[in-house]
Amino acid sequence: MNPIGVKRTAVLFALTILAALTVQYVFLLSGAQIAYTPLRWKANKTFWHGRKIVRVHPQWPEIPVQLPGPADTWAGGDVKELWIYAPYRGPLTLRLGFADSHDTAPPKIGVFAMSTLVETIQVANGSGKAPGKAPIPEGLRRRVVTIPAGILDKGEPWIVIRNMSGSWVEFSGIWVAQKTGPRRNMIIAGIWAILGAWLVARRKYGRKTQTGGIDGVSRTEKQRGGAVRVVVSSFALIGAITAPSGLLSMFDGGPLSHRGELYFTAVFLPFALITGWRFLAQKTVMIGLLVIFSLKLALAFTAPEAGLAVRVYDTPAELAAGEWKRTYTTIWENDVSGLMDRPYLSARDFPLEWMNGYPDKKYGGVKWLALKLSGSARIPKGAKLSFSATGVVDGAITATDENGTKHNLELLKEPGDAAFLSEDGPVGELRIDGALVYSSELSGEDFSLVPVLTRKGGPIADPFKTNILWAGDRAPDDSVLSIKIYSLMAGVVDYSMAAVAMIWLIWLLIRHTARDRHSAMFLILGIAGALLVVFFRWIGYGGSSYMGITAPGVVLTVLMAVAVVYASKRMSATSIDPDKLIVYVLFAIAPAVFTFFMVEWGGEVGKMRLLPSTDDWHTYQFLARKIFVDGDIFSLHEGIYKYMPLYRYVVGLWHTIFGQTTLGQDYWDVWCVILSAAMLGSIGMRLSLTPAYALGVVWLFVFNCFTDGFVWLMGRSLQEYTALLFMILALWIIMRRRPVTNRAALLAGLFAMASLWTRLDHIGVILGIALLSLEPARGGVAQSWKSIFARIVENYRWITLYIFWVVAAFLAVGTRNYLVGGIFCLDDPADLSQISCSTIPCITHNMKILLSAADPGEISIVSVTLIFGTAMGLLALVWRPAWLCAYPVGLGVAIAGVFAPYFLFEPYGYAPRFSVHLLPLACLSVVTVLFYLSGYKSRNTVEKR
């Protein structure tokens, strides 16, 4: 270990332990905390009037947004209590998040556990405004209360929050967590320290290998590596993730709608594959993944299916006719709309993504909804099954016992009432059937359906965690411990997948840091960025923006500033492979970005999102569903130009994998931004920038992407970032090798085609970026253009092949439009209003939209980069003084290509959608000009690479 030194070894140990504990918390310990989130509709006067106590449970984790006090006559003028169910033993931590309070009479709150007063909190004065109408005042934030061990060990574990005096307080959330204690944490840290030490010791740090490629692996190793093992491991990994287990578990198979499998697939897996795909070439890993896959297959073919089968209907008439709605779940389970494996706490939990095809009158509330439940249950003696179903106006749920006797199961209107049920109900093996119709007068938030299992003299049990509900006609026989065996197998799969994630993460961290001293620095930056995001979230600076800049924008600015300073002192252009810079950027920015979005979007897991039918994001949801669920491949009713054909397939693909939630495509948007940023750094180095200036391009790009409207576009179900990634991929591929091979031109042409199929206005920039591979073209205007034309003639073969694919993309669009519209064209013949920009005022209007990234006449922070970068690029085409003589001609042509379509077409929609593909080029332009203005002479690194 002498070659890397004691300090470097210590850093490796620290990184492995920290990474392992982080993954362990995400995948294994997340169940040790319950988050109770506020609902706005529970803040009105009618909700609290006549109520003194509101009980919430992990099955119903929505709390009232306000807790009134004795001074609030509108709520009855009496003491109000919020009862929090805490199903943990031992010391607990109760975190109270305060969003606001009364401005003159803030309340005094008492926290009780089993009638024992634990702590009294005097809430600070707030703004006194309506819920959600004011920022969190200073002095409120959060309060942490420790519930000592032993208090909740007897009876039902309720924590009571009592407003004893004063007026109301507004909650941002309440969290109950089990304290694991330092001893357990030390044991876990020790285990991972031993594992990390063993993995580090196995590495031969002293050997000399010539590294190269995106994962830093030597070419000789790549030749020795098992391609077959990579393929087999990939197949086993995909199968282990998607194969249905049948039971309720973290990795229960497709659609991937549970938190653990969604984060594993959409966040961790892409990162691990990009930075450490060679992990899958290990023989031990291949065998382990095959074993996990075999267990999942055994469960898929033998285990019963947990939950209840659900079919949803639009109206009671369709319920009577049996015309149920197919959903993305139907692709995996062909006879149901969904499998109820968790409580439906609001309309967005129901399988209702088909409602995005409905007119506006459906929004603001589900006007009609009907559903059928079917399945079976095995209820033990002394227990009773009932349902909480708010919003139901008609229908019933019945249970047929083994003797054929039908029993009506009670429908509760208040979930908290279940705690006091003591009546007997049917037990044994039951057949469950039900049909419910929900009110047409209530909003979607008022709808719920929650199975409730109560026991005499005992606490409420979760039916989904006690293996009593099954989607089949008969409950499985549990007399031979079969269910316990299946549950054990499912648990082994869950923990094994979590272990794979931990070991993979440790492996790739060690692999990179052991062979590259720069990787450790960028990893430390990434971890620090994630912690900064958590800190900003804790103080209330999360999704909101300050002067247009969001929290990740600030964090990434700090991280990349440190990275640029570090690169300027420790990294040289001759010692850094441009592709390795991609890994550095991923290490530095991915942890912070995904920490932010995992917190910001965490409540959307498994939920549908209702979208207004007047916006493009709704249209893509609707068209994707028509293709993937209804099988309508050639739709005849959509606008031809406005909705380019490729993105609907991207949307449908992510819905097929992840179900009705939009988080799959939301995280795809984030990955598009991160990967585009990483490749921009590599492209910058190939344009003769030093590593420090290449990282400056990344810095400028990510700062602008998390500012103003650009961050708003992420997760908006629109196609701009997808088209951007395809464009950057095409540019990166043709810049990687000199001269460009026909194979590279073919691959780049395919990505260019994908970019055009996603955004047709990319035509000019797609053609322009091809010239960037012909750089450097230095000197005055005549000399540089002459050099470019000479290289075009010299490289005509691959350029012709590349242009062929661009032309083929246009021909394919015209052919498709002929098939669906009866005419060969690029625009919709029924709507030619966009081809109307032929006057100077119209063209000026278009330029303002593109350059300001805002409404015409407005200037944002991003506008500075766009205007300056564009001006320099266009100027360098016609005037090249000494400080611009090395500016890439191809970059100026690509920037001009961005604007070319807008001399004919007038953009519809809103900014900054039409500036997304201009932003990376403008960032390259700005930093390139600064590079040469700062006194650096041109380098011939492009030819060398």
Strand content is 5-15%
Helix content: 40-55%
Count of helix runs: 28
Mean pLDDT: 79
Class derived from helix and strand content: alpha+beta
Q: Looking at the structure, what is the overall shape?
A: globular
**Which regions are unreliable across 5 or more consecutive residues at pLDDT < 50?**
25-31, 181-186, 204-225, 937-945
Let me know the largest β-sheet: 7 strands, antiparallel
Question: Strands, helices and their partners?
Answer:
Layout: H1 5-27, E1 33-39, H2 45-48, E2 53-56, E3 62-64, E4 66-67, E5 80-85, E6 92-101, E7 108-113, E8 116-122, E9 142-147, E10 158-165, E11 169-178, H3 182-202, H4 219-224, H5 227-242, H6 259-276, H7 283-302, E12 308-313, H8 316-321, H9 328-332, E13 338-340, E14 369-379, E15 383-388, E16 392-400, E17 406-409, E18 411-412, E19 428-438, E20 450-455, E21 469-470, H10 482-515, H11 517-538, E22 545-546, E23 549-550, H12 551-570, H13 580-600, H14 616-628, H15 645-658, H16 663-686, H17 691-705, H18 708-713, H19 720-736, H20 742-758, H21 763-768, H22 781-794, H23 796-821, H24 840-852, H25 861-878, H26 889-899, H27 919-933, H28 941-944
Parallel strand pairs: 1-3, 2-5, 15-18
Antiparallel strand pairs: 1-11, 4-11, 5-10, 6-9, 6-11, 7-8, 7-10, 12-13, 12-14, 14-19, 14-21, 15-20, 16-17, 16-19, 22-23
Helix pairs in contact: 1-3, 1-10, 1-11, 5-7, 6-10, 6-13, 7-10, 10-11, 11-12, 11-13, 12-13, 12-17, 13-16, 14-15, 16-17, 16-19, 17-27, 19-20, 20-23, 25-26, 25-27, 26-27
